[in-house]
Amino acid sequence: MTLPWHQDAFAKLKQMIDQNHLPHALLITGVSRIGKFELMQQLVGTLLNDEEIIRKDDVQQDLDNAVLIRRSHYTNMIYCRAGEINPNTKNRSKDIRVDQVRAFCEALNKTADKLQIGVIFYADQMNINAANSLLKTLEEPRENTLIILLAHNSKNLPVTIVSRCQSVHIGPAYDQDTKAWIEQHIEHKEDFDTMQLLEAAHGVPFKVIDGLAGDDFIHYQKWQNQLLSVALHPATINKVEGFDSNEVEVLSCLQHLVIEGIRLKALKREGGLVELNQIINLAKTDFLFKLLQDISRAIALAKTSVNIKLLLDDVLIVWSHITHLKTYPQILENK
């Protein structure tokens, strides 16, 4: 079954199949948790008439073994990914290594009667040597072979790789069909404003589901409500609760609010958060962008020895005045 926010992307893939124009290499892109793996599953299932040809359970099996590539239960399908144990160091690799890609290409270059499928995820985690090793196979593909690259951001891939693939992008979703899908997959849907949840997750439905799985969403909602109140009622800045020891999480929550505010302001539309609509109507766009830069810098500085509590206080002071600022203050230049 096609996920609602995958309909356009899958229709493009289905048209390629129906017209016998499926390329030798596909690049499926989209932000983390948007469902690139699931779209790949559906494509492969359509090609092989088997919806269970590669499962996430298969992918997670035996990760403690030092292997370069893995196979699905369809003999002619292989995949490689980051996170495998490096046989030389015995450490888990954070990227896709050149030896993995070489083994991947060697397997695909073997003669096979049936369709051969190779999947790399996530391809933007290939190091430069690995990416270069893949080029020849992309430039000189064997017949009856399909290579599928999944990537969070194509900008992190060499242009030489991107140019040799047909790209299919999965964009964020804010439509009613996606809203209905989320409501089918959460308990007590009457307790939530689903569109508000979707906007907070930047249009990524699986993130909505993830966020409701534990107590994280409850904390997030509390921080969000207080941040919105601070911007509309600056005096409440002295009454916020739960920020201590959660400074980075609060900054991330504010970052999401500002990003969503900028998006809505650019689209000239209102979102599900009434308070955020009021804030963006009054705030200047360039000040929102400057605040977003300061928030991002504060989050980065949190990894250093800087006093993160003071950083958050500085950011919150600006946020509390964002609706009526005349000039934007320099708050992090000496940090």
Overview of the structural elements:
The structure is a single chain. Helices cover 47% and strands 9% of the residues. The chain has 335 residues and is an alpha/beta fold. It has two domains: 4-169, Rossmann fold (3-Layer(aba) Sandwich), CATH 3.40.50; 215-320, Zinc Finger, Delta Prime, domain 3 (Up-down Bundle), CATH 1.20.272. It has a six-stranded mixed beta sheet, with helices on both faces. Strand 2 and strand 3 form a beta hairpin. The longest helix has 21 residues, at 247-267.
Strand order within the widest beta sheet: 2-3-4-5-1-6
Principal-axes geometry comes out as elongated
The CATH superfamily of the largest domain turns out to be P-loop containing nucleotide triphosphate hydrolases
CATH level-1 class of the largest domain? Alpha Beta
Q: Return residue spans where pLDDT drops below 50 for at least 5 consecutive residues.
A: 60-64
Which secondary-structure class do the elements indicate?
A: alpha/beta
Q: Find the CATH topology of the largest domain.
A: Rossmann fold
Average predicted local confidence, pLDDT:
88
Q: What count of helical segments does DSSP give? A: 14
CATH architecture label of the largest domain: 3-Layer(aba) Sandwich
Strand content: 5-15%
Question: How many strand elements?
Answer: 6
Give the count of structural domains: 2
